[in-house]
Amino acid sequence: MPLYQPHVHAFSSDAQLIATQMYAMEGQTFVLCAIQVVGKKAHEFFCTNETHEALIGYGGGFATIFGPDGRELAERLPPDAEGILYAEIDLAEIAMAKQAAAPVGHYSRPDVFSLQFNNQSLTPINQLRDLNRQRRAGALESVSEQKVAAVTLDASAPDLQIQDSDGSALVVEKTQRNEAGC
């Protein structure tokens, strides 16, 4: 069973195979999905208790080879087997796949789609007064959302200091909590 299964579907072999197949079709290329198999030696090395063993599981192998049209070109090995997969490929299949899906081909619509690039320097943390100053200066046409970072510090942690690109510092100080934890 793959890592963290059945708890995290994104790590499952089903989800990974769908993503890998999509990489092949999207890129119109051959994709080799090489994956490791978790065996007894891995458990002895990584696991210190039964919970770790349950999360990591055994097996997890699902190596395969996909063609540029998304076809699986090699028979998968069992999830607990190690081995080498072989497939004969024809590079002309890439051209055929590109004919079926050409995102920049003859039906590209520059009248409908365009790429816009903002070359202004942006900072990940802005104080509200900085946003207002940028708005007044015309640097920002509109701000539809603000990103807020919540930081939790335990009682033994020092204050957190974040330095902005212009050298100004924002200090987040610890607050004392009352007995109710507020």
Please, could you describe this protein's structure?
The protein is α+β, with helices and mostly antiparallel strands and 182 residues long. It is 26% helix and 8% strand. It contains five helices and four strands, in the order αβααβααββ. The protein has helices at 13-27, 40-46, 50-56, 92-100, 128-136; strands at 31-33, 64-66, 160-163, 169-172. Strands 1-2 form a two-stranded antiparallel sheet. The protein has a two-stranded antiparallel ribbon with strand order 3-4. A hairpin with a 5-residue loop joins β3 and β4. The radius of gyration is 26 Å and the shape is flat. The model is unreliable at 142-154 (pLDDT under 50).
Number-wise, the strands total: 4
Tally of helical runs: 5
Strand order within the widest sheet? Answer: 1-2
Strand composition percent: 5-15%
Helix content: 25-40%
Structural class: alpha+beta
Order of helices and strands: HEHHEHHEE
Radius of gyration: 26 Å
Distance between the termini: 43 Å
Quaternary organisation: single chain
Average pLDDT for all residues: 74
Flag low-confidence runs.
142-154
Shape, please? flat
**Major β-sheet annotation:** 2 strands, antiparallel
List the helices and strands and how they pair.
Elements: H1 13-27, E1 31-33, H2 40-46, H3 50-56, E2 64-66, H4 92-100, H5 128-136, E3 160-163, E4 169-172
Antiparallel strand pairs: 1-2, 3-4
Defining key terms:
alpha+beta, two-stranded antiparallel sheet
Explain briefly what this protein structure is:
The chain is of the alpha+beta class.
